[in-house]
Design goal:
By secondary structure, the chain is of the alpha/beta class. It is 47% helix and 12% strand. The chain folds into two domains: 33 residues; 201 residues, TIM Barrel, CATH 3.20.20.
């Protein structure tokens, strides 16, 4: 009985240790999946080291009727270029709006076709998501390089490996004023202007009907950063300015 009890305790310790390792490993992978500064393969950029006061403004999602024209109008009135990470299914639904973005001279990036989180997925699924959206982006008339931003910033193995094998850059961000909760326009403006530093990449969600506060903050953000001496560039232009 004593021997059996000792064996049982040993097995309990082994099982408990194994569970700790598994849970710890899973937690570590989740941290990597959501990291804005690290991925296992290829090139990831969340900001650029530069001595110049440059900032790249990026918009995720869409195009959508609620946000496209107000965003384009705000940018045009201040002669500001931006980078739009568009969703394939939204381009298919609103091709005219996607063409308007391209015609205005802005950069268009790939934000996947379905906007599903790209972790725990197969390589073929990743390829379909990326390549279908690339093809739709080309129908807009946009001819520049197509950068990629993972939906919700999530990536693990299959996506980074695919992008690395195709010499594609993963773009995240270092300023995200409207991702958590539903801040008002004044808070979004202040957070952005206060947190931007030379080489920042700003993420804004201004496309959909519920994002009225972000659209309201856009003009003041542009004006505030210009007053602080910042020059707006696309993400590709920012990457080209790296030291």
């Amino acid at each position: 009985m004593i021997l059996k009890s000792r064996r049982a305790r040993k097995w309990s310790i082994v099982v408990a240790s194994a569970l700790v390792v598994v849970i710890g490993g899973a937690y570590a992978l989740l941290q990597v999946a959501g990291s804005r500064t690290f991925q296992f393969f290829g090139t990831l950029v969340n900001r650029v080291d530069t001595g110049e006061k440059l900032v790249a403004l990026t918009f995720d999602d869409g195009p959508d009727p609620a946000g496209t024209k107000p965003i384009l109008d705000a940018l045009k009135s201040r002669q500001v270029p931006a980078t739009f990470f568009l969703i394939g299914r939204d381009i298919a639904a609103h091709p005219d709006l996607a063409r308007d973005i391209a015609a205005a001279g802005h950069e268009i990036g790939n934000h996947s076709f379905s906007h599903d989180r790209m972790i725990g997925v197969t390589p073929s699924w990743v390829a379909d998501e990326v390549e279908a959206t690339d093809a739709l982006i080309r129908t807009t008339g946009y001819t520049g390089d197509i950068l990629f931003r993972p939906p919700n910033g999530k990536k693990l193995f299959a996506l980074p490996r695919y992008l690395a094998s195709h010499n594609r850059t993963t773009v995240t961000w270092d300023v995200e004023p409207d991702s958590a909760g539903t801040p008002d326009a004044a808070t979004i403006e202040k957070t952005t202007v206060d947190q931007v530093r030379p080489g920042s990449i700003v993420l804004l969600h201004a496309m959909y009907p519920a994002r009225e506060q972000t659209r309201g903050a856009l003009g003041p953000i542009l004006d505030g950063l210009k007053q602080r001496g910042y020059r707006f560039v696309t993400v590709s232009q920012l990457l080209a300015a790296r030291h």
